[in-house]
Design a protein that fits this description.
The chain is an alpha/beta fold. The chain is 38% helix and 14% strand. Strands 2-1-3-8-7-4-5-6 form an eight-stranded parallel β-sheet, with helices on both faces.
Length: 317
């Protein structure tokens, strides 16, 4: 198996423009470090729908949902194709809505295998068009992957077109839910709304908060999480850079949050998961250099993390 870099410069699922530039910012960071990482691996550019940001959109509870659904389908097809061709895809994406495409692509490639998802993020991303306070779809990928509408917590009345696109999103790749709630684990989630908290509690989704990880020890928590995934044959890691503390690292991301992980904790967390030898895909998302008040700090930090974990991946595939 060979590593392949997939570049998905899409930011139409976010509320703030600029995460489409995150990949280029990481490449600039690599050049600045005289690191040839982006010349070492084959790569693929996934076409985007970023121009749709200028379209008049009536889906206020799920902004640009039709184009986001198309983009997730493109990502799903790319992930499926590369996994079937025995590549290990490292997906670099703009906003986090892409993760629905990634999860759907993994399940399309391995429909009979049970998939475990490590979601390293400040946010739960488990809203639906029926509950979202913003309408930004980067807050909805897990609800779609789990096949959840969350109508018992409904706040919004999406129009018929929105409902149609939402149904399409829940069935990208293969029909129906892609993962089970017991096969989803959060690390670092700390900025949620009431509807998300209710769903997390109802579905009994495990969330390793920062304070627990530091009190009990990162190694202990990772081993415990992997034990929960003992029946999962494959694992996907979704790493949103806002899982890191904006005050310690940078606010160069769409929705920065304080009191998160530091860079070393992320390094050890990713390496601990990869050491399981079950990981088939890694995704890095939400770097926004336009919001970075420390130069290119977020992209530089994300690249250092990416470079280090890639070395661990190489030793396990």
């Amino acid at each position: 198996m060979q590593i392949k870099i997939l570049k998905n410069r899409s930011d139409i699922g976010a509320g703030t423009r600029g995460s489409d530039l995150g990949i280029d910012a990481m490449e600039i960071a690599a050049i600045g470090k005289e690191n040839h990482y982006f010349n070492e691996f084959p790569f693929e550019d996934i076409p985007t729908h970023n121009e749709s940001i200028y379209n008049k959109d009536h889906n206020s509870f799920a902004k640009r949902i039709g184009h986001v659904a198309e983009q997730c389908t493109r990502v799903s097809n790319a992930i499926d194709r590369n996994l079937r061709n025995e590549f290990f895809p490292i997906l670099l994406s703009g906003d986090h809505s892409s993760a629905l495409g990634t999860i759907s692509g993994i399940k399309k490639a391995f429909p009979e295998k049970k998939l475990g998802v490590f979601w390293i993020d400040a946010h739960a991303d488990i809203h639906s068009p029926y509950t979202s306070p913003s309408g930004n779809i980067h807050g909805m990928p897990l609800a779609a992957a789990l096949g959840l509408d969350n109508k018992q917590l409904q706040l919004n009345e999406p129009i018929g077109e929105t409902q149609k696109h939402w149904e399409n999103m829940k069935n990208i790749g293969i029909g129906g839910p892609k993962i089970l709630s017991e096969n989803l684990i959060y690390f670092g989630v700390r900025d949620t709304e009431a509807a998300e908290d209710d769903i997390i509690e109802q579905c009994k989704i495990r969330n390793y908060k920062i304070e627990e990880v530091r009190f009990r020890g990162l190694d202990v928590c990772v081993k415990e999480a992997l034990k929960q995934f003992s029946e999962c044959e494959i694992i996907y890691i979704s790493f949103d850079v806002d899982s890191m503390d904006k005050d310690l690292v940078s606010d160069g991301t769409g929705t920065p949050v304080s009191k998160g992980f530091d860079q070393n904790e992320i390094n050890l967390l990713l390496e601990g998961i990869v050491a399981s030898k079950k990981v088939v895909c890694l995704e890095v998302v939400e770097i926004n250099p336009l919001l970075d008040t420390r130069g290119n700090k977020m992209a530089e930090t994300a690249f250092e993390i990416l470079d280090r974990v890639t070395g661990k991946i190489r030793s396990t595939i």
